[in-house]
Amino acid sequence: MFIKERVDQLVKKHNTNNPFKIAEELGIQIVYEQLGSILGYYSKTHRCKVIHINESSPREQQIFTCCHELGHALQHPEHNTAFLKANTFYSTDKIEQEANEFAIELLFNQGGDQIVTLREATETYGISEQLVYKNFCD
Ligand SMILES: [Zn+2]
Q1: Cα-to-centroid distance, 84 and ligand 1 (Å)
Q2: What is the CATH number of the domain that holds 71?
């Protein structure tokens, strides 16, 4: 699977699956903002890639948001993508599905420091079980 291979390579190269560290090493800026019900988004202006994260979200949610937006930064770098909201987990939009798949592969990648378990993903991170199983049972 293309996304899984890409994530494996990324984790190996950076020696971590921490999305904040990977973004930093890739020169992608992370900013925390007041975003209301929006969890985060990715933008590119000129040559500057920025991941925007809701400063009021719980830390676990911010980690998932960072993974998702990092997926956009690497897979869809020229798009200013849609705002990530809780219901984006169920989005049928190809770009959003790819970012969710990337995020889950990164969170669960065994090559780095494991920062989340399946149980945490569904209970703490609010990621739908359907989304997790879809990506692990293919
Ligand atoms: Zn997205």
Answers
A1: 5
A2: 1.10.10.2910
C-alpha count within 13 angstroms, C-beta hemisphere, residue 15: 0
**Residue 28 has what pLDDT?**
97
User: Distance from the CA of 27 to the center of ligand 1, in angstroms?
Assistant: 19
Task: Say how many Å lie between the CA of residue 13 and the centre of ligand 1.
Answer: 24
Of 33, 60, 69, 101, the active-site residue reads 69
Question: In the chain, how many domains are there?
Answer: 1
* Tokens linked to 113: 């420091």
HEC string for 26-84: CCCEEEEECCCCCCEEEEEECCEEEEEEECCCCHHHHHHHHHHHHHHHHHCCCCCCCCE
Q: Which residues of the chain have pLDDT under 70?
A: 1, 110-118, 121, 124-126, 132-138
Active site residue 69: yes
Residue 47 lies in domain: 2-136
**CA atoms 4, 72, 114, 123: torsion sign:** negative
